[in-house]
Amino acid sequence: MASYDLVVIGTGPGGYVCAIRAAQLGMKVAVVEKNPTFGGTCLNVGCMPSKALLYASEMFEEAGHSFAKMGVVVNAPSLDLPAMMNFKQQGIDGNVKGVEFLLKKNKIDAIMGAGRVLGTGKVEVKSADGKTRVVETKNIVIATGSAVAQLKGITIDEKRIVSSTGALALDKVPGKLLVIGAGVIGLELGSVWKRLGAEVTVVEYLDRILPGMDGEVAKQFQRILEKQGFKFRLGNKVASVDSSGPTLKVLVEPAKGDGKAETLEADVVLVATGRVPYTAELGFKEAGLALDERGRIKTDGHFATSVKNVYAIGDVIVGPMLAHKAEDEGVAVAEILAGQAGHVNYGVIPGVVYTTPEVASLGQTEEELKEAGTAYNVGKFPFTANGRSKVNQTTDGFVKILADAKTDRVLGVHIIGREAGEMIHEAAVLMEFGGSAEDLARTCHAHPTRSEAVKEAAMAVAKRAIHM
């Protein structure tokens, strides 16, 4: 029976990255994967396929509404949805094969089957044919990710009442799509189907969209989405979905309980109320792993669980459920196991909404600074005043920089705009080194670029923006 230095359960972004880094550091490594393909939710039914459809649907929208004003004359585009889904699948296949190649390149053994922690040093793997084997290892890393959060009383069938997985694989454009939840997943997938012709209504329990993001950013982004045709029902909850007829009947009630209930019709309902740690059938309780009140695995701050030599990373522990957060944790725990100082700076983890325009957020929001009693200065710069955005006629949004009032250290950066997800990273590097708004303001930016808006926002912190 083979014995390993490390066995990683799960090959999503956190798991496969952890395995590769450990192999680079000289460990004998195996991964355990319950699905037929590597890459976890992100590569197969999450981040990557959704970005393929977001890109394809954006091109469809551009061809139908933007090309003509640029002097590009084309016939009105028609949708070939099967071909678009094939485009999506090609992207999935390429990424999945890429992970398989990397595992082989780094001499990592892949054990296919459902993993179960038996305790320190032992992982049971049950293959698809029902056979089980026990793998011995010095260390175990749990990287099993997350699953779709269920909504009480509403059964997801992945046909008419769908999760994000089903929403990525609809066989026709719904006439009316009702999205439950105004978070990242709901708004991204709502954008895909809105561009392709669906009427989209978003029902959100809170009185705002994008919970956790900067409030000013969320308000302007909602206005932009409403211009695109989104309808929002904020401060409301979905009480039930009647699927007995040809059209879904969705009962919507005021979240606070006062006011009239209303029935909305929809062809498809997307349940996008978040995700929960995937801990089912993994033997955590039997093995003695302590969980918190939300079902996440408790760790000591250095990824170690309550069971010796068993570690956990990614969506199954506290923190934002983001692939890049899991990746950094995977690298950190591998380095800790190798005797190095693995570390993740949780204050500098970008979050991005990949709509058009994109929304990118880093560090603290204005609401968080106020709640903490931190004195701060704000610098804002709109893309309407940015030369590149003007000539491209893509002027929605702005850059907002929050800096400590005493030290000028940048505490948060928030961007709505085209390519915001790319622009946020210069702020991430700056904040990783404890940089100031002045540092950013005095860094030369190429002209004409959208990134000049970041520099101007930094200058605006000291009330010296040039182009506004």
Can you describe what's shown?
It is globular and about 65 Å long. The protein is of the alpha/beta class and 468 residues long. It is built from 14 helices and 22 strands. It has helices at 13-24, 40-45, 47-65, 81-105, 164-167, 184-195, 215-227, 284-287, 323-337, 366-372, 387-392, 420-432, 437-441, 452-461; strands at 3-9, 29-33, 109-112, 114-119, 122-126, 132-142, 146-148, 161-162, 176-180, 199-204, 231-234, 236-242, 248-254, 262-266, 268-271, 275-277, 310-312, 351-353, 358-363, 376-382, 398-404, 410-417. A hairpin with a 4-residue loop joins strand 18 (351-353) and strand 19. The strands form five sheets. Strands 1, 2, 3, 4, 5, 6 and 17 form a seven-stranded mixed β-sheet that branches. Strands 8-15-9-10-11 form a five-stranded parallel β-sheet. Strands 18-19-22-21-20 form a five-stranded antiparallel β-sheet, with helices on both faces. The model has no long low-confidence stretch (mean pLDDT 97). The chain has three domains: 3-148 and 276-337, 3-Layer(bba) Sandwich (FAD/NAD(P)-binding domain), CATH 3.50.50; 161-273, 3-Layer(bba) Sandwich (FAD/NAD(P)-binding domain), CATH 3.50.50.60; 351-461, FAD/NAD-linked reductase, C-terminal dimerisation domain (Enolase-like, domain 1). 32% of the residues lie in helices and 25% in strands.
Key descriptive features of the protein:
single chain, 468 residues, alpha/beta, FAD/NAD(P)-binding domain, Enolase-like, domain 1, seven-stranded mixed beta sheet, five-stranded parallel beta sheet, 14 helices, 22 strands
